[in-house]
Amino acid sequence: MGGKRIYKIDGISYAVIEEHSVEVSCVERDRNGTVIIPEVVESEGVVYRVTKIGYSAFSVCDKVTSVILPKSVNVIDEAAFKLCSSLVSVNIPEGVKIIGYETFWGCEKLKSLFIPDSVVEVKPRSLWFCRSLETLSIPKHLLGEEYPKMFPKRFNNCSAQCRWMDSLKQCLVRLPSGEIEEFDVN
Hints:
3% of the residues lie in helices and 35% in strands. The protein is mostly beta strands.
């Protein structure tokens, strides 16, 4: 059997992962500025929903400054934005369930990140070397039963999620009631 069917549209490669579903598999490394991923792409007369940002899809796109993801995305795979050293912002849409290993590793200019309530798992090392990250907004269910005692171990200078994030000034923890609790990390 052959590999995945891949379609290249406007400098972005999409790999078919299910009958009418694709993942962003590769973005041209010389892309710059804002990259907008569409909710659907069409190739050879077939319409596909973009449901995943694949393994290392944006990795080392060091001129990309922002990424806008569609609501159709439900997985951001391992190392998806690794070493995007100029990335300042990325929206993670409601509906994303998993943020993979080392997803934002080395995104040195990323200033803030909003993790939606739909996320059920943030894999280890996902925010390592995000040296400019100042604000992290995260749902309480990702912090576990030991919150707020566990916060420093899970998200500030630790081996599990973040490392060398001295710039982090505050974490906005969204409680199930809809209230927001500020957690000063300094």
